[in-house]
Please model this.
Amino acid sequence: MKKPILVLNGDQVGFNPGETVYEVAERSGVDIPTLCYDSRLDPFGGCRMCIVEVEGSSNPVASCTTKAIPGMRVKTAGGRLDMHRRVLLEMVVSENRELDVDPLSGYASQELKLLADRYDARSGRFNGKQSGQSFEDDPNPFIKRDYDNCISCYRCVRVCAEQEGDYAITVVNRGFETKISTEFEGLLNDSACTFCGQCIQTCPTGALADLKALANREIPGETKKTRTICTYCGVGCSIDVLSRGEKVIGVLPAMDGPANNGALCVKGQFAYDFVGHRDRLKTPLIKNGSGQLEPASWEDALNCAAEGLSKVVQEHGRHSLYAIASGRAPNEVAYVMQKFVRAGLGTNY
Model:
């Protein structure tokens, strides 16, 4: 079936029925700036940064909430659109304490800063009263609540509700008194928060930030990002491990992870200290003749294990052994475990 067509910046583009103008543009490689948009969330249309001009419409429309229509002619940049975005950014920036937050704050923490620089919105001409009230007294070890940098995009509230299903935070008050709060303006520890960290990673200003990662910001060196899989359970969430030298300094969820789509639990997000813990084994250990553990090569360790298992089977029979698989192991490891027990040891236990 032939796709319907719209005209995007002079080019004909096919689209799927039900797509928004923003989705069509994104798929076509046309950049439209946003602040309140997160592809995992329902379109909100609050920041008005994604406005586009549609032929026949008297005013620009929010591309994230406007459905594509056959024959629609859309312009995404230039002229009054750029002027509108610049003024919007100048007003948003004027209410914040700072723009230049540390990138370790979170996955999206640089979005406002990059847009302000892109549209030259650091003029300061709207400086004056500021909104937001930071919650510096919250003793939780994971999430920094620096609401002086909040722009009320509500991405944190929405991801907590729509993705995590916790509804731990919400929006209270109006105007300059608007702020993000838990129930009864209490501590996160006393709320429904599960410390999954999704609010941190979607925040475009660093108002919600990763306290554990920021504690490592003084460690010298270039930050390296390594894609891997979280080891805490069998789901297989994709993560990007941040490191400097030999030290892990933070974890980012992979927004394109097929199993997690940018989501993590509290363990996957924050429990990485074991990687560099002083008690972690760095080499196999084998008991010597006096019963003391001593370092060994992998070959020697595997041979020792094989000999020990074979000896038990010979002396006590195959049903004297059984295996326990870890709940942290993925399906592939569980398969290898049962295959080893059945084919190698000759038991189904």
About this structure: Residues 284 and 302 are 9 Å apart (CA to CA). The chain has five domains: 5-77, 87-214, 224-276, 283-316, 317-349. The chain has nine helices and 14 strands. The first strand starts at residue 5 and ends at 8.
